[in-house]
Specification:
The protein has 280 residues and is α/β, with parallel strands linked by helices. It folds into three domains: 82 residues, Rossmann fold; 67 residues, 2-Layer Sandwich (Dna Ligase, domain 1); 69 residues, D-amino Acid Aminotransferase, Chain A, domain 1 (2-Layer Sandwich). Helices cover 37% and strands 25% of the residues. The protein is built from nine helices and twelve strands. The strands form three sheets. It has a four-stranded parallel beta sheet. Strand 11 and strand 12 form a beta hairpin. Helix 1 crosses helix 9.
């Protein structure tokens, strides 16, 4: 029987309700793969950080921290099937994400990465807030661990907000321009078999904003490809209905509104990968 290891995200990277939802979607994916003949072992990011990792043919990787990713990198280098790959998880750390997306032609807000203790560059701040919109300040490494890790701040209070990040021991921050328009949340699997979205304000059961879905999907999958993600989700703003702008993208989100459907799609995608490997 084929062996898989499911690696659950550290609770520090799954704040509040995300902890339950992140665990639930990985549980559902494991169950779907078990029905297809896989034998599963479950472990956590902390165990990976300590170098304790069973041998398997497949690793379902929810780890977000740098230390766990570094421990998993030899698996990726040796050609093991790791979903998502540790390199793609590291690419989602905001300082790397900003660099990679900034080097592409993908629509992404102007973003400045700087030390939280640095002197505020006023000229660059002016460029981020030309119409006196609030400036978004986000921690510059992993995605939000707590609500105050992502804040919209009036221009005149940016320096104060940076001091608050520094006081909490967060060394790097991202200053990002505000993009007007409705916000859409999306979820996808890299081969296109699964893609769902909904308006952030109305929620997944509410009315969806009138936007160009084909452009949304193209943007989401392009961003995932740039970062090397196979299982992903994120946020897009629409300043105009046919002009999506990527705000954020994450490795292996909770898929909470579509959990069971997403888990089956992820399991089928992985099964297809192994079938292709056998016939290659």
């Amino acid at each position: 029987m084929a062996q898989l290891v499911a690696i659950y995200r550290s609770p520090s990277y799954s704040p509040m309700q995300h902890r339950v939802n992140d665990t639930a979607v990985l549980d559902a994916t494991v169950t779907a793969l078990e029905t297809q003949g896989w034998d599963a072992v479950k472990t956590g990011e902390r165990e990976v950080e300590q170098g304790r990792l069973p041998v398997a043919e497949l690793y379902l990787n929810m780890c977000q921290g740098s230390l766990a990713a570094e421990q998993l990198m030899p698996l990726e280098c040796d050609g093991a099937v790791v979903v998502n790959r540790p390199s793609s998880a590291l690419n989602c750390h905001r300082h790397r994400l900003v660099k990679r997306l900034g080097e592409s032609t993908l629509a992404f807000p102007r973003t400045l990465i700087l030390a939280s203790s640095a002197t505020l560059p006023l000229e660059q701040l002016d460029a981020l807030s030309p119409d006196h919109h609030d400036v978004w300040i986000k921690r510059g490494d992993v995605h939000a661990e707590r609500p105050e890790d992502v804040v919209a701040t009036p221009r005149e209070r940016v320096a104060e907000a940076l001091r608050a990040f520094a006081a909490r021991g967060i060394p790097w921050v991202a200053l990002q321009e505000h993009v007007p328009g409705p916000i859409v949340k999306f979820y996808g699997v890299t081969d296109g078999r699964f893609f769902r979205w909904y308006g952030s304000d109305a929620g997944f059961a509410g009315e969806r904003p009138k936007v160009d879905e084909s452009r949304l999907k193209a943007l989401a999958f392009e961003a995932a490809a740039i970062l090397g993600l196979e299982v992903f989700g994120g946020d897009v703003a629409f300043p105009e209905p046919d002009r999506p702008v990527l705000i954020d993208i994450n490795d292996w989100p909770s898929f909470a509104p579509f959990r069971e459907e997403a888990a089956r799609a992820i399991a089928d995608y992985i099964t297809g990968r192994f079938a292709h490997r056998k016939h290659a």
